């Protein structure tokens, strides 16, 4: 199989994982540095594959709601209801998915468990944001192929800070479900 097919399969699979997966941009950089590929095709396939993986993650999270503690699901659903009751809050959520520099896996798990937030607009915002960020990463990787940035990026991904950030994001999703969002709802 060519690098493009592997890219699609790996990126979709990695974005289906709820935690501890490498960021998609690192996979794109690896492919850029290791193979002779078209940068535009690399970015477009990366965005489409990541969006597919995150969409499937949200759908699987919705399906698994029945296996999660009822209180947790009720609290996350109430948070989603409060989010969609005002257009401004919903717009802010889409902006979060558009520009969020954090890992989006925790956000997509929360959207899936909420069940009240429409997935398509969130996926569109995610794809648009990733189109910009992946373009920047791939263009930078292309320019840095002959420099010493590769080892620096690799060591950063393996740092305790990167792993700690994943743990914090998972805890935030858990805390989202522990708070009782149905009390004090806006009218």
What would your notes on this structure say?
The chain is mainly α. 76% of the residues lie in helices and 0% in strands. The chain has helices at 3-16, 24-34, 39-63, 70-84, 87-99, 105-114, 119-144, 149-157, 160-178. It is elongated. The protein starts with a helix and ends in a 9-residue tail after the last helix.
Spatial shape: elongated
Mean pLDDT value: 80
**Whole-number count of domains:** 1
- Cα-to-Cα separation, first versus last residue: 56 Å
Structural class: mainly alpha
Tell me roughly what share of residues is in helical segments: over 70%
What is the CA-atom radius of gyration, in angstroms?
A: 18 Å
Reported for the largest beta sheet, the result is: none
Compile the SSE list and pairings.
Elements lengths: L2 H14 L7 H11 L4 H25 L6 H15 L2 H13 L5 H10 L4 H26 L4 H9 L2 H19 L9
Helix pairs in contact: 1-2, 1-3, 2-3, 2-7, 3-6, 3-7, 4-6, 4-9, 5-7, 6-9
Task: Note the main attributes of this structure.
mainly alpha, 187 residues
Summarize the structure.
With 187 residues, this protein is mainly α. The chain has 9 helices and no strands.
